[in-house]
Design brief:
With about 300 residues, the chain is mainly alpha-helical. It contains 15 helices and four strands. It has a two-stranded antiparallel sheet. α7 crosses α8 (about 160-180) and α8 (about 160-180) runs antiparallel to α10 (about 205-215). The protein is elongated, with a radius of gyration of 25 Å.
Length: about 300
């Protein structure tokens, strides 16, 4: 058996199907290295780095073809069997609740940091001797950094996994809020807002990746709804937190306190090894660097 290029089947990529003949160079180039010595083995041209990956690809595609033949015309049944092949040990309810809770708290803090500073602008205006327009511009720098960096954050999630990127984002947004609380001048305040915005950019890409990869599909709707609700709760908590502490202890103390909240969360995400979850195509590559498996 060999690997030949055909039309896509059941949604799997540029279409490598199980075949009986045909060129194998495309598969070797995609799933193995081409800079090593190749040799002929059983009529199949492969290299020592790519041979095992091609064999994995064959096994997965053979399973998919068997499913396609058995449940032809029944798309739901095929999807269910493919899902079990991709993730034989479905996440338990307890595991799902834990992951949803952690991700939702992280999303709550994302929205918390969006709104923790504006309610105490009246205190910052006196400190920096600037108007509300200047402080509004500083807040816009937060949103500009967050918006522009969300696409790069998505690429980082694909490369390193949602868990690692989310932990880094929590640490950066925490550091940015701390810098806002310690800023001695308005230019440094602008820079601190941009740092905080950069940290905030990772939340949606990382959160969605973690939920999609780690939550049982039957509970994804609940997970996304709780994710949305938690963000709104962050907007509710932030003004009460910053105004109460700012009025009692000063705005700098309030922001320093706000910056420390996410540090335990960042540690939790950085240490959580999670559950192995391997994408069907990247499993075929046999790569230990699969980002989905680390989400």
């Amino acid at each position: 058996l060999g690997v030949e290029r055909r039309q896509p089947a059941f949604g799997v990529g540029p279409a490598f199907q199980l075949g009986v003949h045909g060129p194998h160079d495309d598969a070797v180039r995609q799933y193995g290295r081409t800079d090593c010595k190749r040799r002929e083995q059983g009529g199949i041209r492969c290299c020592r780095h790519g041979r095992k990956r091609i064999e994995n690809l064959r096994r997965i595609m053979a399973s998919g073809l068997a499913i396609h033949n058995r449940v032809s015309g029944d798309g739901d049944a095929a999807s269910a069997i493919l899902l079990r092949l991709m993730n034989p040990a479905a996440p338990s309810l307890r595991s799902d609740v834990t992951i949803i809770g952690l991700v939702c708290v992280a999303h709550l803090m994302s929205h918390f940091y969006l709104l923790v500073v504006p309610p105490i602008f009246f205190l910052l205006r006196v400190e920096f001797e600037v108007g509300y327009a200047a402080l509004g511009f500083a807040t816009s720098m937060f949103y500009v950094a967050s918006g522009l960096l969300q696409t790069p954050a998505g690429f980082l999630v694909d490369r390193f996994g949602g868990r690692a990127v989310l932990a880094g984002g929590l640490a950066v947004v925490s550091a940015g809020t701390l810098l806002i609380g310690l800023a001695p001048s308005y230019p440094l305040l602008l820079a601190a807002f941009m740092v905080a915005g950069a940290g905030n950019s990772v939340f949606h890409p990382a959160d969605m990746a973690i939920l999609n990869a780690r939550i049982n599909p039957s509970r994804l709707g609940y997970a996304f709804s709780m994710h949305a609700v938690s963000g709104n709760l962050g907007w509710v908590v932030a003004p009460a937190f910053s105004v109460a502490l700012g009025a009692a202890f000063g705005w700098r103390t309030a922001l320093v306190a706000a910056s420390t909240i996410t540090l335990p969360m960042a540690t939790t995400f950085s240490r959580d090894k999670g559950v192995a979850f391997t994408c069907v195509i990247r499993a075929a590559r046999g790569s230990m660097s699969n980002p989905i498996a680390r989400r």
